[in-house]
Amino acid sequence: MAALDVLDKFTGEIIRSLPIAGESEVDAAVRRAQRAFPGWAATPAHRRAAILLGAAERIQTRRDEFTALIAREAGKAWKHAAGEVARSVETFTFAGEEAKRIHGETVPMDASAFGEGRVGFYLRAPLGVVSAITPFNFPLNLVAHKVGPGLAAGNTLVLKPAEETPLTAILMAECFRDAGLPDGVLELVHGPGETTGDALVRHPAPAKVTFTGSPPVGAHILKVAGLKRVTLELGNNSGTIVEPDANLEQAVPRTVMSAFANAGQVCISLQRLYVHETIAEAFLAQFIAATRALKVGNPLDRDCDVGPMISDEAAARAESWIREAIGEGARPLTEIKREGRLLWPVVLTDTRPDMKVMCREAFAPLVSVVRYERFEDALAMLADSPYGLQAGLYTRDLYKAFKAVAALDVGGVMVNDTSIFRVDQMPYGGNRMSGIGREGVRFAIEEMTNLKLVCFNLGD
Ligand code: NAD
C-alpha cells in the first residue's frame, strides 16, 4: 500500500506516514459502517448524546495536544488553532444536545377531504451510511460539523479527511472510541481526493455524501455521486462594506483578522473590502499599520498571527495572482514577500473586479481595498459574485442594513461584522457556486435524516 506523508507545514518534516486506502480498503470501510448501522440507529438518543458529550469532554481535556497538532499539520497559528479546538468542543456539545431533540410533527391529515378519518405524523429516520469528505483548513471543526450531526442522527460515517491534515481526525476518532463509540460507526480512510475520495463518492452503498471543499471538486462530486443526497459546502470570494458611520475601533482589528487569520485560508476570509471614500484614508492608515504589525512565522509560537500556507504550490499560486494583479494596475500597500509556504499579508488597492484576486477565491493572506462613493454602488460590487456564502457590512444605519439583506444572495449577512463571523449552531452554507445545503448542527441533522410519514386510517 502506498504511503501518505503528513508534513509539519512550517518545518517541512514528516510528522507521520499513513497507508493510503485504495478502492478495496474504501469498500471494506463502507461495509463495516453498513454492518454497524442497524445497531447505532437503534441506540437510544440519550446514549448517542452521552457518547458525543463524552468525546467533547475528551477533546477539551486534550485541547493542547489538538492545538499543537493543528498548528503543525495545518500551519495554523496557535491562537487560531486553540480557537478551532474550543469551537469543536462546542460543535460536539451541540450535537450531543441535538441528539435528544430529533423529532417530527403531527400532520393534519383531515385538512384534505381525502384525508378524513386519518391521523398522521412524521418521524426523522437516519439515512444509513454517510460519506464525509473534508478540507485542510479546519481539520477538526469542519470534521465535527459532519461527524457530530451524523452520529447524533443515528447514521454511521466513513470519513475521508484532507490528505494534508488527517492526523487531527485520527486523534478525534480516538476520543470517540474512548467515549464508547462502537466499532464501525465512524470509519476513517486516508488518501488523495482523486483516488481515495473518488472511490468513496462513487461507492453505491452510502446514502449521502457530505462534502466541504473547493467548488470544482464539489461540482465533480455532484456529477459522479449517483442517486444519493449531496451537501456541498464550497468556497467564496467574501466581501465586507465599511460605511462612514462604522465604529473603526471595532472594524479595523476585525477586518485585519478576517483577512489574514489562518493565512487567509478560510472559506469566509475577507478578500474584497469596500471602504467609503470619506473614511478611506483614516481607515487605511490604521489597517495597514495593524497589518504590518502581524507576526508571521512559526505557528507554534503563542504570539504568531500568520503561519505558513498549506503547500508551496498554494503559496506560489497566490503570489502569481498578486503579481499578475500588480502587472494589470493594482497597487500593493504592503511589501510582497514570500519564503516557501510563508506569504506575508498583502493589501492591494486600485484592483478591478475582473482581476483574479477579486473575482476568484484567493484562499491566501491577501485583501483588496476598494473605495466607493455611493452605498448602492458598494452593495452592487459586493453582490457581483458567482459565489454566495457570507457577506459583512459595518453601519449603524438600519435602512442600509436591510437594503443589504435584501440585495445579497448569500447564506449569511453579518451586520457590524465581517463575512468571517460564524458560531457553530447557526445555519451556515452558501448559494450558487458556494454550495448546496446548510450545516450548523441542527440544520445538518435535517439534511442527514429522512422524513418518514406514518398514517393511521381510523375510519370505520
Ligand atoms: P479541495 O476541494 O481540494 O479538497 C477538499 C477535500 O476533497 C479533500 O479531502 C480532498 O482530498 C477531497 N477531494 C479532492 N478531489 C476529490 C475528488 N475528485 N473526489 C472526492 N474527493 C476529492 O479543498 P481544500 O483545498 O482542502 O479546501 C479549500 C476549499 O474548501 C476552498 O475552496 C474553501 O472555500 C472550501 N471550504 C469551504 C467551507 C464551507 O463551509 N463552505 C469551509 C472550509 C473550506
Please characterize this protein's 3D structure.
- The protein is α/β, with parallel strands linked by helices and 460 residues long.
- The protein has 15 helices and 22 strands.
- The strands form six sheets. Strands 12-15-16-11-10-18-19 form a seven-stranded mixed β-sheet, sandwiched between helices. A six-stranded mixed β-sheet has the order 7-6-5-8-9-21, sandwiched between helices. A three-stranded antiparallel β-sheet has the order 3-4-22.
- β10, α9 and β11 form a beta-alpha-beta unit.
- α4 packs parallel to α5 and α5 packs across α15.
- The mean pLDDT is 98.
- It binds nicotinamide-adenine-dinucleotide.
- Nicotinamide-adenine-dinucleotide (NAD) binds next to α7 and α8.
Could you list some keywords that capture this structure?
alpha/beta; 15 helices; globular; 7-stranded mixed sheet; binds nicotinamide-adenine-dinucleotide
Give a summary of the structure in a few sentences:
With 460 residues, this protein is of the alpha/beta class. The chain has helices spanning 23-41, 45-61, 63-74, 78-98, 141-152, 167-178, 193-202, 215-224, 248-260, 277-292, 312-327, 356-359, 375-383, 398-407, 441-447; strands spanning 3-7, 14-19, 106-107, 118-126, 129-133, 156-160, 186-188, 208-212, 229-233, 239-242, 272-276, 331-332, 338-339, 342-343, 346-349, 366-372, 387-388, 390-394, 412-415, 431-432, 435-436, 449-457. Strands 12-15-16-11-10-18-19 form a seven-stranded mixed β-sheet, sandwiched between helices.
